[in-house]
Amino acid sequence: MLFSRTIIISCAGMGNRLGLGTTKALVEVEGKPLIVRQLELLDKEKDIRIVVGYQAEQVVEVVRKYRQDILFVFNHNYRKTGTGASVALASKYANPYILALDGDILIHPEDIEKVLTCRTEFVSGDMIKSEEPWMIQTYQDLSGEYVSAFSKEKGNYEWNGIAQMESYKMQKGTGHVFQQIEPYLPIPFLKVRTQEIDTIFDYEHAVQWVRNGFDKEKK
What are phi and psi of 174, to 5 degrees? Predict the structure, then answer.
């Protein structure tokens, strides 16, 4: 079967923990909104859906200034639901695979290629560095590394909200995206360098990461 994918970016949340009064997709890092930084990495992708809720009009306006062919999906119940509901809404009538991204992350420019060239299901994570992260437990066998569970208590990596799944598996859910994925574990693991922006601490690290040319080793 020919591989066909829809990209879903979840931008409906209010970003309360960040405390900047704006949805995280519109937070500027070095003069550029997060959502624009993501779209720059996805320039060659044709089918992109952005789920909006809080400050929807502002998100649509910023996106349309950058790109005109984006489909917007409205999560009107964004105050009571999580990214799982956003992905479920946007997965309807999608291509056979969906690539789910959170609108509050920076992705290393060198790693986006390995995400976009993958033609199978995967769950992605990075080294644990955010405050209060959800973590990924993995195991290794002869065919590679696989995700076995998600946990708040312990894990090998931090869940970064990036996953590629068959779209029919993601069409129900109201909580976290990983809760939609859990019934289908184990799934191949893909390490992708990212920086989530959930708190001011995360935001400061994200800004420094960009200033350092995405090199975490620089001070």
Answer: -130, -15
DSSP 8-state assignment for residue 182? G
**What's the Rg (C-alpha) of the chain?**
16
Cα dihedral 60/66/72/76 (nearest 10)? -30
List the one residue out of 180, 151, 175 whose CA is nearest residue 165: 180
69: left (phi over 0), alpha (psi -120 to 50) or beta: alpha
The backbone torsions φ and ψ at residue 188, rounded to the nearest 5 degrees and listed phi first, read -55, 145
pTM of the model: 0.93
Please check whether residue 85 is in contact with residue 53, taking contact to mean a CB–CB distance below 8 angstroms: no
Determine if the peptide bond prior to 186 is cis (ω within 30°). Answer: yes
Q: How do 187-191 and 122-126 pair as beta strands?
A: parallel
CA distance 37 to 102: 12
pLDDT digits 0-9 by tens, 75-128: 999 999 999 999 999 999 999 999 999 998 999 999 999 999 999 999 999 998
Q: What is the pLDDT of residues 126-137, one digit of tens each?
A: 998 877 789 999
- Extended strands (E) in 85-186: 97-102, 105-107, 122-126, 135-141, 144-151, 157-166
